[in-house]
Amino acid sequence: MALSALPVGRGGELDHDRLSELPDHILLCILERLRGDVRVLARTCVLSRRWRTLPVMLSALEININTFVVLTGGPSTLQRLHQATVMFTGAVRFFLATATAGDQPRAVRYLRLVFCLTTDEHLRDIGQLVDAAIGRGKVRDLELVIHTNKGRNFLRRAPKVASITRCFADRFMRLLGATPPAVFGSLRKLALHNLRFRDASDVGVLLRTCTALEILTLDYCGLSDQLSELAIDAPPQPKLKVLCFDECYIRRIHLVQVPKLVTLICSRWLSESCPVTFGPGSVPYLQEIILNNRAEEQLSFSLSELLENVNNVETLRLAFGNGRVWLEPENPKILGAAFSKLKMLNLMTVSPEGDLSWTMFLLQAAPLLQLVDIEVYSNDICMEPDDDKDMEELEWEVPPGFRHRHLRELRVYGDIDATKDVRFARLVMERAVNLERLVLDARITCEECVAAQRQDPSVLLSKFPKDKDDVDAMVRQLKDGISTSARIIVYPTSMRKFEY
Fold first, then answer.
1. What is the DSSP string of 44-75?
2. Whole-number Å distance between alpha carbons of 95 and 152
3. Taking Cα atoms as reference points, which of 129, 235, 146, 160 lies closest to residue 194?
């Protein structure tokens, strides 16, 4: 639109700023959508006097050091990081300054800070600024995400990885001890990356200092002795509800006492044995367990070993990173106590090469199970094939008289085989006498695979039926001889939807 086309007043000047006439709560809702980029927020302060105080009145705020990092050119990476930390600290100082709405201080309901372990001086400044804001009652919900100046794969690549990551862990422990107690004492979410603690006692100090902590994430962290065990023993009256471990250099995690824990996530562990163990009565409220790993080596353990002393799990999610199942089928009776309340089972990235009937032992062990969700996944199209991948065929024989009376829905999606996987679906329909819904979704969602097929139309993404006549024939075979009222929903690779 040309400048001359804008509305003008009687004196020939542009009409006044109508946006600025909106009430504070409307303008703040607009700014909330920009809260992830504090540089944009800061620029709004120069629009007019009306906007000058609005950014510091936000009730939710995220300040991320990545906003200030210059990616290329100029000084070294370390110097750029120090410069970014100076700007980050200035942003924290600005946005946590005393703000008023009328005469009443405005509290920050949620504050998320993402920064790096640079120098002790910078870290001390950040801690003091947050402590001052907490003291004024301005910060109620605090989350810290603390990185080193290294990438996620640093632990694997660096030649002096042990000493360097231990230095970063020592720097964090100094920060923990030097920061005013109110900061870490009010912290609810903490994520640490690329730290190698000297021993498990450092983690114990962390938990005793962060008394309000609800979510703890350790990403690429570890102990100086990789063969040692990390014991998690929460302090009295803990609030810790979620524990997340991602590729941690620890032989095993043992939960001694975490009475409020609800969710446990463990991804890409290094040990060939069970990654987590539970002490007696350690997790009375644990409801969800998520395990995700690539079985590069001979990795196999039983669920009964993992779930010993666990009795209340309602959701179990197991992901097999390269399709190789690292789970051992076992007698369902052994799992009876652990699976007595299980309602949702999610199996992800299961190889299309095997038969899914081995999963029936899980149904037998979980009488209250309501939903089974299975992703059959193969990325052989968009990635180089793994010639060393030798999938072991898992087998399980279902007793003739077995019937499941609570399963309501079965979903199988991904690289579905019209023979093997449909045969498995039929088996479930026969045994789950109250099944209400069966979903077979063969749509390929992998962007790389779809892109490969676009470049070369001869690439076959799936052998699943595409045409309605073929799908109709498959469903007739699926239901033949079975008395069921379950709705059958099929998404073939043609992206259409058929209901039966």
1. HTTS-HHHHTSGGG-SEEEEEGGGG---SSSS
2. 29
3. 146
Which of 443, 445, 420 is closest to 498 using CA atoms? 443
Our separate counts of H helices and E strands in the chain read 14, 24
Instruction: Give tens-digit pLDDT for 71-83.
Output: 666 666 678 888 8
Closest to 340 (Cα-Cα) out of 373, 317, 307: 307
Strand partners, 441: 413, 491
> At 327, is the secondary structure helix, strand, or coil?
strand
**Residue 300 · residue 330 · CB < 8 Å:** no
Residue linked to tokens 């120098």: 119
Phi-psi label, residue 320: left if phi above 0, alpha if psi -120 to 50, beta otherwise: beta
Q: Is 198:224 a contact under the CB 8 Å cutoff?
A: yes
Would you report the helix, strand and coil content of the chain in percent, each value rounded to 5? 30, 25, 45
C-alpha span between 155 and 164 (Å, rounded):
9
State in Å, rounded, how far the first CA of the chain is from the last one. 53
Q: Closest by alpha carbon to 434, among 363, 499, 329? A: 363
The number of CA neighbours under 13 Å toward the Cβ of 147 is: 15
CA distance 41 to 469: 57
Structure tokens at 353: 């090469």
How buried is residue 161: exposed, middle or buried, by Cβ count under 10 Å (0-12/13-18/19+)?
middle
Q: Which H/E stretch holds residue 472?
A: helix 468-479
Beta strands in 125-247 (DSSP E): 139-147, 187-193, 196-197, 215-219, 222-223, 229-233, 242-246
Residue 437: CB atoms within 10 Å: 13
Pairing label, strands 139-147, 108-116: parallel
Stronger pLDDT, 285 or 458, i.e. the higher one: 285
Report how far residue 170's alpha carbon sits from residue 314's, in angstroms, rounded to the nearest whole number. Answer: 38
Distance separating alpha carbons of residues 35 and 61, to the nearest angstrom: 5
Would you state the torsion angle of the CA atoms of residues 305, 310, 314, 315, taken in this order, to the nearest 10 degrees? -40
420-477 confidence digits (pLDDT tens): 999 999 999 999 999 999 999 988 766 777 676 677 766 666 778 888 999 999 999 9
> Rounded to whole angstroms, how far apart are CA atoms 83 and 16?
39
C-alpha distances (whole Å) from 265 to each of 49, 217, 219, 458 are 48, 9, 11, 40
Rounded Cα distance, 360 and 345, in Å: 12
Higher pLDDT, 35 or 497: 497
With a CB cutoff of 8 Å and minimum separation 6, the contacts of 16 are 9
